[in-house]
Amino acid sequence: MQFLLLLIRCKKTLDDKKFGILIFLDISKAFDSACFDIILAKLRHYVVSEPFRRGCPQGGKSSPLLWNILINDVFDLSLPSNCHLQAYADDFVLYFDHEDLNLFSAFAIFGRNLCIYLDRLTNQVYLKIRLKINWSIRYSFGLGNYATIFDYMINIHSINENFKR
Which residues does the UniProt record annotate as the domain Reverse transcriptase (predicted)? Predict the structure, then answer.
């Protein structure tokens, strides 16, 4: 369902003649770094009475559910109106769009602010669920009918895309 929503958002960007960038991010060792005290508190909040004594191991049967319970609050965090966040297990997609390519490619909307957005998101996630995020970039690509080169750095990883008409 989340992937379908992402496709719909991309199609709308193209239909509206906007420009967009998708960045696929991974949280390193996500399940291993999950704060189990917060998961337990959330389970108690949702009235789960069984005692839990173990963590959230990678590949465990209950790990996806426990992970979803943990990251649920991430989607309530404050992001700019042209920035959207979606999750697939421990992977996230950060999606930006804007109608003005000059602003978009001149870093006013995307470039300079990307690191600010990710830093803000990282800080908010840590404050909310005590999860230390180590972003690693899996993929990035642009949407729109334009030719420009984007070159950004996040956590010493380069996002360097050459978009063609």
Answer: 1-165
